[in-house]
Design brief:
Poly(ADP-ribose) Polymerase, domain 1, single chain, Poly [ADP-ribose] polymerase, alpha+beta, ADP-ribosylation, two-stranded antiparallel sheet
C-alpha cells in the first residue's frame, strides 16, 4: 500500500512518526512499511490483553462513531482515564480523509460523510461554535486534543454537537450528540463542554487562562473571506499547469511557485515537529505565535537553574500553545532544557510567524483570475529582475559566493540556479538616511524556504518583545554574514529538498562594536556604534575590494583565517 503514495505523502507519514524523511522513494517506502509493521505489532500485543466491545448507538445521543474499544469505567471521555487506549486506537491505519468547508469553519475531518453532506458549523454573526483544544503534560506523557463543534443542518431546524478526543496524530474517539431541535440546547452543550475541559468560559476566551491539567484553547483565524479561494495544497501537476499558463517571465514564475508553495510550508514544518493537522498553517493567528514566544522566554529564564520539573511544565505549555506531533514517543525526550533546543524552537516559531504572514497574503489574492502565480507576485509588492549569466554583476556575485564558502562547510556544494535583482516597495526611501554611511558592504542573509513570502512582502524584521533575547547570539536584530556558507546553513536545505534562497543585501554598518564571543545583550550598542560584528575564525579577504557606490564593498579574494587576540 505504501508504494502507491506519492513521495510528498510518504514524507508526511514519516514526519508524523518522527522518522527521517530524506532518501529515494523505495527507501521511504521501506522505512514507512517497517514503522507500520511495528505499530501493527504494538496494536495486536495490546489488544490481546484487553476485552473489546462495540459502542452502542444511543437514540438520544445520535451516532457514536469509532471502532472497537476496551471496556472502561462509565465515563463520557475515556481518554481521561485510559490514555493508553487512544494509542491503541491510533496505531491502526486510517482511511484517507478530506476536509469539508462550509462557511467560516471547516467541519472536523472525521465526521461521517452523511453528516458532512447535510450539516455545517454553526455561526451567529461573528460567533463561530468551533473549538480545538490541546493539552501537553510532559511529566504525565500526555499530548492530546479535544474537538468541540456545534453543527447546524443546511436546511435549518436541526442541530448536533460533535466531540472528538485522543492523542495527537491519531483519530482517537468521537461522539455525536443530538439531533437537537433547539439551537440553544446545542449551544449550552458546547459551552458546558468547553468550560469543563478548560475552566474558562467561552465568552471570556480572548482573555484565556491556562490551568494545569486542563486543556488550552487554540485560537483559529477565520478571517478568510468566504468567496475567495482558500490557500490550499496543490499537486505537482497543477503547479506545472500554472507555470505554463502564467504571464510572468518564466524564471520569475518558477521562483514564485517555489516560495509560495503551501505544500512545501506544511512539509517543512512537519519535519521539525509542528502539527499542521491540528492547527492548520492557514488558520494561524498572530496571538498564538506571540504566546509561543512568551513561553520560550520563560523557558530561557529557567535554563541553567537545574529545575527539571519546572522545565517539564514550561515545555508542556509550549507544546500546548504550538502543537507538535510526537507519535508515541515518551514526552520526557522533548523537554526544552538546553540553549540549542531553545534556539531550534525559536526558529520554528519565527518560521510560523513568516508563514502566518504568507498565508494571509496568499488568501487575500484578488489579482488576475486564472493566473495565481501572477497574483502572488503582485501581492509581494516586490520587483524581481533576472540577472543574466555572463554579466559583470553575475560574475562578481558568483565569485563572492565561491570565495566565502568556508572550508568548515565542505559537506555540501552550491550551484546558482538563478539570480534576481530585488527592489521592495518603499525600501529605497527607508535606506536613504544611511546612503552616505561609511563602511557599507554586500552581506548574505539565509532563511528557510518557508520564510521567503513573508520576508519579500514585509522585509527583514527584528524579533518581537515576546521573544527571549537569550535565543540570539548577539541580541535581537537583523543578522547578516560576510561568509556565504554561514548564511547558506540557515536555509536548511538537504538532499531531499535541495533548493535554498539567500539575499545579498547592501548593509550600512558604520562603526561596528566587534565581539569575539556571544553576548545576548549586544543589541544595546555602545555610544557611536551602528552595528555589532561577531568576529569568527574565518573572514573574507577585503584587500583590493571594490568600494564603488554601486558595489559597496565586495571581497574579491578567497576567505582567510582571522587574527584574533
Amino acid at each position: 500500500m505504501s508504494n502507491k503514495l506519492r513521495v510528498d505523502e510518504l514524507r508526511t507519514e514519516l514526519a508524523q512518526r518522527g522518522l527521517v524523511t530524506s532518501g529515494t522513494k523505495p527507501t521511504l517506502v521501506r522505512r514507512l512499511e517497517a514503522a507500520l509493521r511495528k505499530e501493527s505489532k504494538q496494536s495486536l500485543d495490546t489488544n490481546d490483553a484487553s476485552v473489546t466491545k462495540k459502542r452502542p448507538r444511543d437514540s438520544h445521543h445520535g451516532d457514536s462513531n469509532g471502532s472497537e474499544k476496551r471496556l472502561c469505567k462509565d465515563s463520557e471521555d475515556p481518554e481521561e482515564t485510559h490514555q493508553a487506549e487512544e494509542e491503541v486506537e491510533g496505531s491502526k491505519k486510517e482511511k484517507l480523509i478530506v476536509a469539508t468547508k462550509k462557511g467560516a469553519a471547516v467541519l472536523d475531518q472525521w465526521l461521517p460523510d452523511h453528516i458532512k453532506a447535510h450539516y455545517h458549523v454553526l455561526q451567529q454573526g461573528d460567533e463561530i461554535y468551533d473549538a480545538m483544544l490541546n493539552q501537553t503534560n510532559v511529566g504525565e506523557n500526555n499530548n492530546k486534543f479535544y474537538v468541540i463543534q456545534v453543527l447546524e443542518a443546511d436546511d435549518g431546524g436541526r442541530f448536533m454537537v460533535y466531540n472528538r478526543w485522543g492523542r495527537v496524530g491519531v483519530k482517537g474517539q468521537d461522539k455525536l450528540l443530538g439531533p437537537y431541535t433547539s439551537q440553544d440546547s446545542a449551544i449550552q452543550e458546547f459551552l458546558g463542554k468547553f468550560f469543563t475541559k478548560t475552566r474558562n468560559h467561552w465568552a471570556d476566551r480572548q482573555e484565556f487562562i491556562c490551568y494545569p491539567n486542563y486543556y488550552a484553547w487554540l485560537e483559529m483565524d477565520y478571517s478568510e473571506r468566504e468567496n475567495e479561494s482558500a490557500v490550499q495544497e496543490k499537486p505537482e501537476s497543477a503547479v506545472g499547469i500554472q507555470l505554463r499558463e502564467t504571464q510572468l517571465e518564466p524564471r520569475i514564475a518558477k521562483f514564485i511557485s517555489l516560495i509560495c508553495n503551501v505544500s512545501m510550508m506544511k512539509q517543512q514544518m512537519m519535519e521539525i515537529g509542528y502539527n499542521a493537522e491540528k492547527l492548520p498553517l492557514g488558520k494561524l493567528s498572530k496571538s498564538t505565535i506571540l504566546k509561543g514566544y512568551a513561553v520560550l522566554k520563560r523557558i530561557a529564564d529557567m535554563i541553567g537553574q537545574s529545575d527539571r520539573k519546572k522545565l517539564e511544565q514550561l515545555s508542556g505549555e509550549f507544546y500546548t500553545v504550538i502543537p507538535h506531533d510526537f507519535g508515541f514517543k515518551k514526552m520526557r525526550e522533548f523537554v526544552i532544557d538546553t540553549p540549542h533546543k531553545l534556539k531550534c524552537k525559536l526558529e520554528m516559531v519565527e518560521a510560523l510567524g513568516e508563514i502566518e504572514v504568507a498565508t494571509k497574503l496568499l488568501n487575500d489574492d484578488t489579482g488576475v483570475q486564472g493566473d495565481p502565480l501572477y497574483s502572488h507576485y503582485q501581492r509581494l509588492q516586490c520587483e524581481l529582475t533576472p540577472v543574466e549569466v555572463g554579466t559583470d554583476e553575475f560574475s562578481v556575485i558568483a565569485k563572492y559566493m565561491q570565495n566565502t564558502h568556508a572550508k568548515t562547510h565542505t559537506n555540501y556544494t552550491v550551484d546558482i540556479v538563478q539570480l534576481f535583482r530585488v527592489s521592495r516597495e518603499g525600501e529605497v526611501d527607508c535606506f536613504k538616511k544611511f546612503s552616505d554611511t561609511k563602511n557599507r558592504m554586500l552581506l548574505w542573509h539565509g532563511s528557510r524556504l518557508t520564510n521567503w513570502t513573508g520576508i519579500l512582502s514585509q522585509g527583514l524584521r527584528i524579533a518581537p518583545p515576546e521573544a527571549p533575547v537569550t535565543g540570539y547570539m548577539f541580541g535581537k536584530g537583523v543578522y547578516f554574514a560576510d561568509m556565504f556558507s554561514k548564511s547558506a546553513n540557515y536555509c536548511y536545505a538537504n538532499s531531499a529538498a535541495t533548493a535554498g534562497v539567500l539575499l545579498l543585501c547592501e548593509v550600512a554598518l558604520g562603526d561596528m562594536a566587534e565581539l569575539l564571543s556571544a553576548n545576548s545583550s549586544a543589541d544595546k550598542l555602545p555610544q557611536g556604534k551602528l552595528s555589532t560584528k561577531g568576529v569568527g575564525a574565518t573572514a573574507p579577504d577585503l584587500s583590493g575590494s571594490s568600494g564603488t557606490r554601486r558595489w559597496c564593498c565586495c571581497p574579491p579574494r578567497t576567505a582567510k583565517r582571522t587574527t584574533r587576540p
